Structure formats: C-alpha cells, structure tokens
Amino acid sequence: MKRGSSPSELVCFTVLSLLSTMLGTACVQPYSTTISHTSNKNLSPKGFVDIISTGTRQIWNKKVPGTQMEKLRSIIQDKYGVKFENYWDFHEWSIKNYSQFWEEVWNFYEVVCSKPYDQPSRRIGDRIIDVEWFPGAELNYAENILRYRDDGVALICVDEDGKELNVTFAQMYEEVRLYAAAFKKIGLQKGDRVACYMSNRREAIYSMLAAASMGAMFGGPLPFYGPKTVAAIMNIMKPKFLITVDRFQFNKREFNTLDSLPEIVNDQEFIEKVIIIPTREGSKLKDISSVNNSCFLDEFLKRGRNSDGNIPELVFEQFSFNQPVFINFTSGTTGLPKGLVHSAGTFLPLLRDFGLHCNLDRTSVTLAMQPASIKQL
C-alpha cells in the first residue's frame, strides 16, 4: 500500500499487545481427571509425541465463513488458475511457490511502503536461508504498526492490583511521537540499540515503536533475570540507552529492579542514559544518583517537546525489508543468552499467523502475558 493511502481492514496489533480474549470462544467442558493416559513404560520410541497425542480431545470444530484465509485462497486460485480442494492443497502450493505466496500476503494486507519491491524474493545462495526478501522495497516497521490513528482500542493494560487502562490507536501514536522526539533529542540514531529491562508494560511498546521509527534496534533481557545475567546481556547487546522500571509484580511476588541497576549499568561505558519508569509515586522521591546517567521518565519525555511545548512530527525513516529492528535473547539454559536479530519485515509472518490462521482483525483482542523481550516475539 502506498504511504498515505487509506488502509483496508488489517490485523493491527503491536506485537507486544496486551490483554484480550480470542475471537470466537469455544465452549469447552472442564478437563476430566478420569481420562486414562498411556504410561511412560508403554510408549513407543516417539515418546513425547505419544504423550501429547494420547487422550487428546477435539475442542473446536466450527466452520467460520468468509475468513481471511478463504479470501486470500480465492484470490490466489483466480490469479494463478489453480484449484485447492482443501487446506493442505493450499499449504503445499504456498511452499512450492513461496515467492508468489508471500507476495500475495504483502498485497492482501497492503503493506505500507515508500518504494515498491523489485521482486518478492531473490536467491543469494544454496542454503535454505539464502533468500533476500522483497529487495528494493523501502518501508518502516513502526509505520505499518501505527497505520491506524483513530479512537479504536489498541491496548488494554491490566495489572495484578486490578487497575485497567485503555489506550486508543490515536493515543498510542501520540505517545510514540513523544518518545521518538525525546530519543532523537538525546542522540538516538539509525543502528543504535535501545535495551528494555521491564515487565509487560505499555511504555515498552512506545519505546520499541519509537526506536523502530528511526531505524534503531530494540531488545533486552527478561525482567526476572538477576543483575549478573542482565549485565552480561548488556555487554553482548551494547545498548546506547536503557529503559527500565523501578519495580514490578509477578504472581504477587515483588521484584525490585531499582536496587539492581547500579550493578547492571555502572560498569557499562556504552550506556549513555538510563531511563527509569516510576510505577509508584514514592519512587519519584528516591535518590537515583547511584545509577550512572539516570533519569526518571518524565524528565526524559520533557526533552521531546520544543520550547513552545509542541512535539515534533513523527518521521518514519525508510529502510529495506532486512533492516535490523529487534534483538530477542534466548533463555540462556545452554550457556550465555544468544541475541536473535529480526528485520523490519518481521510483521509479515505475524499477519500470516494472526490474520490468516486466527482470523483476527483490528477489533479482536489477544492476550499477551509475556514481557517485551521474550524470544518468542
């Protein structure tokens, strides 16, 4: 879709979207403890697969008409003169004709770009990963996520104390605009890295999209990690800025992040600014001078405003499909956590998963309990 044109209905979530219920809830009976499962001693060599398959029950078998999957399937059948008798025919075609399939996904969801691609894919080697996707295209990850700027609900934020806050698409856009302006004022540029060390909060989304708007990379450790592990990840990632939180609660357990920050950041010369989000009023009264180059969120955001109080316009810098956007770290169970880099086009597989497979659109609600940095995102 050309930049500035009106988008059609699209699965527009923020990848880190918060609370929801799935579209079309199935009526499921409670799990019965009387179901017999095969004991381990009787398992075939498949082992774990047999454990999963034994005693499984069908919980959903309802035909939903007019799904996004059916619409795309019809488009492809008409365009390419093929006939799919069932889902697996369609699946096989998408694998054998992967270039055409992803081109149709791109067109179906009207990807916002300033420059069209030369071709959907280009082989650059013999390995399965040696494919350059959508060469020639120029786009911005954040611009595609923020294409809606109306009063529809974008985020439903709920904490363990029962507090609930709704954020509209328009409000989210304005927050990202302010965060981006503040980041630019303190020197964030293309290729820089912003580390996030916090629980599942809306501020993580704002800062992530702000960083993506200018071509910076965003990532970081899980908030449950101790200071030594977090410091090790910082040393791998080498972020220019760190945005974090004073404390958070998980399953009624209190985690005090603020006390760990000196050990995490004070030996990291590459961290130029530590931005602390106070979740309680009392935190603003605390002395944070022991955390090098630190400030509270309000002080940081004030820098995003001009002298007249206005906020500069949000500029979506244009990059290739392969521009690095995220660094998601593994759990570290087999050694030091490893940083997995994801590109600006990482939203396209999500449209496949949540649009085609789950049939969600911008009015649907999904539940995301995981923190911002978890690798599955």
Automatic annotation (TrEMBL):
The keyword Electron transport does not apply. Keywords: Signal. One of its GO terms (molecular function) is acetoacetate-CoA ligase activity. This is Acetoacetyl-CoA synthetase. Residues 151-368 form the AMP-dependent synthetase/ligase domain. Belongs to the ATP-dependent AMP-binding enzyme family. The keyword Signal applies. Residues 1-27 form the signal peptide. It comes from the Eukaryota. Residues 87-144 form the Acetyl-coenzyme A synthetase N-terminal domain. Gene3D superfamilies: N-terminal domain of ligase-like (3.40.50.12780).
